[in-house]
Design brief:
Strand content: 25-35%
Bound molecules: uridine-5'-diphosphate
CATH topology: Ribosomal Protein S5, domain 2
Shape: elongated
CATH superfamily: GHMP Kinase, N-terminal domain
Order of helices and strands: HEEEEHEHEEHEEEHH
Distance between the termini: 127 Å
Helix content: 25-40%
Oligomer: single chain
């Protein structure tokens, strides 16, 4: 054990100029891409690439809650299942739920329970599925941010989207959005999620130790990052639902043919002509 601790301390995570192993500065996010509406069967879905993470989110509901004894006559249940695919990490990940995935599912359900207008859908369930296809640290934040887009894509009424990002400490420096090496060999990791419109914090966890000032710095970095992620989430939804004039023309029925041009009027008969019979 002592040997391992010795090895961990020797991993250099930042160079002299303050750049991290992947070349980022302390306040820089990894590249992020979000796509809404990627699955046909689900009511709503989203796919997110966040650095080395690849995450898929699908949403069903509000639909009748099963098993029935779980139904709440006053509100909808918001249930989440976070799962890491066995092939998502290079070490073998045992398939199926474990303590970690149960914990992550629970904190994500709770985060969404505070934004979904659950009281409008008694006895129902909103089911959120998060599948991590490739993991590189920060998967709960990526999963939560993708699920938020999937919920909006499903048309589930919410107070706002939820945007999530972690910050932590590596080599004594507070940094945003740790990757796997930084997460493994760093000093602390602090994932959080906010409702950007109100600033409310709906998820906050911490692994490791931060001083009060470091924690304040980490929160500032995460809140700034969450606002950038919020923009990417809204862009994904805009791309999915915005309609251009070209789309309208493509979908509208063809215009009816123009009316036939008017026939020339018959010549006016002379005044003394009262028709064939006369009067
Ligand atoms: N990880 C892994 N095997 C596991 C669980 C996690 O290799 O069984 C890796 C994975 O890359 C994950 C990272 O460890 O993203 C950090 O995990 P953590 O529990 O901190 O959650 P996350 O940062 O992904 O939300």
């Amino acid at each position: 054990m002592e040997d391992i601790e010795h090895i961990e301390k020797k991993v250099k995570l930042m160079d002299a100029s303050g750049r991290r192993l992947d070349g980022r500065k302390s306040d820089e996010l990894r590249p992020i891409r979000v796509e809404a509406g990627v699955l046909r069967r689900a009511d709503g879905s989203a796919y997110m690439e966040w650095g080395g993470n690849r995450v898929l989110a699908a949403v069903y509901g509000p639909r009748e809650a099963h098993p029935r004894h779980l139904q709440d006559p006053a509100r909808a249940l918001v249930q989440c299942r976070y799962n890491m695919a066995p092939f998502s990490v290079s070490d073998r990940k045992r398939p199926g739920p474990d303590r970690r995935s149960v914990e992550i599912s629970k904190v994500i359900s709770e985060a969404f329970s505070s934004v979904v207008f659950a009281e409008q859908f008694p006895r129902t369930s909103v089911d959120i599925f998060i599948e991590v296809l490739q993991a590189d640290a920060g998967t709960r934040c990526a999963g939560l941010s993708a699920a938020s887009v999937a919920l909006a894509d499903a048309g589930v009424p919410m107070r706002d989207l939820v945007a999530s990002c972690a910050s932590g400490k590596i080599e004594g420096v507070v940094c945003v959005d740790l990757n796997k090496d930084e997460d493994n060999f760093g000093d602390a990791d602090c994932p959080m999620a906010i409702v950007p419109r109100t600033g409310e914090i709906v998820l906050l966890q911490m692994d490791g130790h931060l001083t009060y000032d470091e924690f304040q710095k980490a929160m500032d970095l995460s809140i700034g990052a969450a606002h950038r992620i919020y923009e990417l989430q809204r862009d994904a939804l805009r791309r999915r639902y915005s309609v251009t004039l070209e789309d309208i023309l493509k979908e509208s029925p063809p215009l009816p043919p123009p009316p036939p041009s008017e026939e020339p009027l018959p010549p006016i008969p002379p005044e003394d002509d009262f028709g064939p019979e006369g009067i």
